[in-house]
User: Which sequence fits this backbone?
């Protein structure tokens, strides 16, 4: 059975956790294919809030299988803790499988992450400090430790010893001062390896088997297109490819397996970290979006920078990912703000452009060209859920006009409108 890829179209934080959980109801296997615990997905189910960092969001659905693909970098301590928290709240992780080819984040990766960011001084990229970038560096440098080696004590001990000898010299050169304790690291992380070993498998083979049985597969991306290391706002990006094209490499499936790509678009723009953000509102509008939208990083807790919806960004994402349908989230947050604005193009050096620039120097000179739309009244969460149950036509006319503008500006149909964090506050058109 062909697979569906779910992608964030902006800088992440579009509400992919809720949408993955929503799509997971009709999927059999949910696969996370890139990133690490620098990404967080928040899901509200049964009146409870769950925050996932490494685990695929679909685990909240009973009977579903959840895979962590080879394209993910895994902090074993974080994953063990996350599994424990999930099980302590009455949800099983028995259907979790971890790719034997996924790379492991170790303490020296986090040390290097912090040291490198400090040395950048005025050129910081806004890393979360969780060792994601250095782990991907080791993967590219062919010195990383993969899960298959990690859960084998002899292999893990030998590879750890090799790496620590090198990493210590790098940390010394950075003036870090702290010494790596090889025995302490091995002892602690061997404990995590024992707990994770039962979940480790060749997930690529398992996925092929599931597809031949006609199972529905959902491939879940982390972060968003604008944080893609090749196509995002480089260097203010993450260390992996967030676009749909990486779903195959990160999950270990053939491109022929992909049947649809759906893109999650937040009804306004947010991002965490450094770099130009053309529609950012450092004013009362920005503060309202921050507070009303609860725009604080799931993983870091950092406040997100907020601004009007940027269709130059969304069109860029639609083109790169080949998006077949849009899920428009957090429409409820715009209620009560008054007139809303949508950026339809940029002015760059006195000329209008609808193409997203490749350098941050150019993006920093871009001025948004807006269209203004009528706003709609603020409504409490219960009223939003009630509206969702009535269907799309029950939404305020101004909200439907906003959806229509997004469709016209991107050339892609908005298939789902999300008007609240609850599962029930979701409308399929």
Assistant:
């Amino acid at each position: 059975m062909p697979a569906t890829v779910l992608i964030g179209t902006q800088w992440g934080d579009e509400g992919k956790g809720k949408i993955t959980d929503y799509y997971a109801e009709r999927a059999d296997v949910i696969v996370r294919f890139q990133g690490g615990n620098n990404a967080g997905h928040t899901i509200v189910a049964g009146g409870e809030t769950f925050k996932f960092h490494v685990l695929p969001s679909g685990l909240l659905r009973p009977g579903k299988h959840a895979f962590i693909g080879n394209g993910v970098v895994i902090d074993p301590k974080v994953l063990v803790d996350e599994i424990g928290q999930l099980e302590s709240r009455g949800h099983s992780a028995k259907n979790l499988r971890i790719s034997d080819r996924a790379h492991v984040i170790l303490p020296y990766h986090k040390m290097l992450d912090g040291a490198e960011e400090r040395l950048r001084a005025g050129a910081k990229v806004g890393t979360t400090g969780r060792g994601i970038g250095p782990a991907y560096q080791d993967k590219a440098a062919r010195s990383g430790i993969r899960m298959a080696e990690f859960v084998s004590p002899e292999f893990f001990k030998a590879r750890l010893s090799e790496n620590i000898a090198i990493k210590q010299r790098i940390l010394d050169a950075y003036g870090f001062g702290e010494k790596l304790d090889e025995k302490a690291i091995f002892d602690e992380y061997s404990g995590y390896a024992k707990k994770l070993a039962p979940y480790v498998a060749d997930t690529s083979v398992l996925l092929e088997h599931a597809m031949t049985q006609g199972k529905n597969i959902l491939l879940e991306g982390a972060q968003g297109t604008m944080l893609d290391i090749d196509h995002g706002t480089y260097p203010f990006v993450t260390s992996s490819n967030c676009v749909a094209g990486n779903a195959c490499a990160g999950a270990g499936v053939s491109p022929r397996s992909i049947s649809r790509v759906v893109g999650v678009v937040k009804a306004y723009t947010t991002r965490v970290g450094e770099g130009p953000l053309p529609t950012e509102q450092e004013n009362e509008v920005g503060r309202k979006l921050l507070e009303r939208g609860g725009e604080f990083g799931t993983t870091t807790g950092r406040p997100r920078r907020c601004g009007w919806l940027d269709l130059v960004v969304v069109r860029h994402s639609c083109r790169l990912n080949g998006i077949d349908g849009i899920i428009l989230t957090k429409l409820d947050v715009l209620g009560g703000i008054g007139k809303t604005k949508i950026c339809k193009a940029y002015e760059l050096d006195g000329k209008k452009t609808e193409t997203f620039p490749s350098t941050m120097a150019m993006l920093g000179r871009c001025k948004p060209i807006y269209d203004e739309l009528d706003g709609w009244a603020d409504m409490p969460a219960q009223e939003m859920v009630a509206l969702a149950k009535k269907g799309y036509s029950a939404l305020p006319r101004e909200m439907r006009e906003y959806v229509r503008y997004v469709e016209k500006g991107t050339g892609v149909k908005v298939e789902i409108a999300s008007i609240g964090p609850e599962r029930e506050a979701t409308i399929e058109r």
